[in-house]
Amino acid sequence: RTIGNGSAINASGSNLNLFIANVHFDSNFIASTDTMGNFGGAVFVDGGPFATVTIEKSVFTNNYVNNSGGYPGHGGAIKFNNLNTYNIYDSKFIGNYAMSGASAKGGAIITNDSKGTIESSLFKDGNAGSGGAAIYFQYGAGFDTTYIRNSTFYNNLGGVSQIHFESTTANKLELEHATIANSSVTHAIYGAGSVSAEIRMRASIIDNGDPALYNCYSASGPALISLGENISGPEASPSNECNLTGAGDAYNVNPQFGNAGNLITVANTEVLPLLAISPAKAKYPGPCMPGNDQTGASRPKDASGSCDAGAFQNP
């Protein structure tokens, strides 16, 4: 039990190079009544212009921040501040939350002025009072691009979004072969801030799971740009809030998840399978980019040579 930032790892330095691999962070938390707020239930990193963090094959479960002192805590598992680069590979974030009031952000992760790559990872059962029940990206400077590839976001609840991207400058968030599904939050993806910022999507499945809610939102904020081959599920009118106008896009259609819409375990991670009739199957002809899916298996997996949308390449 810790009062302060980062109950397991607290690191800082403009030249920091932090590497974390094969670590399980479980039930770390920050609980405080001060007025300064708390960040990063398991890991807090305050960097600088040359600071880098890499996390590989690690698991974050049931970490949280809770502050009742009048200022919210953010980042149930991780807070990254002012990093040159962070990379998260082949990791799982399950049941992490930031619930210190209605303005708490980032159920699993919150980043501030930090660019990075999140790849082949699972975000499940996160919660945040304000937004970013899985991840909250926040930028007040810079012109960087952050990437999410081959990753699944499932049942992240609370606030207005599973993934929240807020930028007052021309930063970009790019999703490639992501699956975002099954949440009761108002929006699967939420953009805020400058109209010069961008949220880009390619070969991704975005289905909030409730036709009375929305898949995307970015009024007077970052431009929503399709790079093609995306699927968005049924949503409240208007029915193309993700602005899917690229080649091969389909919106307001049922992605037809298999296993009754529940995750399955494959190669030590969890993914959402597709039914054979899914419009996300064989979405575009190969070569598939990236060449592997969330489980590490090669795309494609059959003789068709075609690539499925989403994080998992179905057999």
Notes on the structure:
This protein has 315 residues and is an all-beta fold. The protein has one domain. The chain contains no helices and 32 strands. The protein has strands at residues 9-12, 17-21, 24-26, 29-32, 43-46, 52-56, 59-61, 64-67, 78-81, 85-89, 92-94, 97-98, 109-112, 116-119, 122-124, 127-128, 135-139, 145-149, 152-154, 161-167, 172-176, 179-181, 187-193, 198-202, 205-207, 214-217, 223-226, 231-232, 264-266, 269-271, 284-285, 306-307. The strands form 6 sheets. The protein has an 8-stranded parallel beta sheet with strand order 1-5-9-13-17-20-23-26, with no helix packed on it. Strands 2-6-10-14-18-21-24-27 form an 8-stranded parallel beta sheet, with no helix packed on it. The protein is globular. It starts with 8 loop residues before the first strand and ends in an 8-residue tail after the last strand. The mean pLDDT is 92.
Gist of the model:
It contains no helices and 32 strands. The chain has 315 residues and is mostly beta strands.
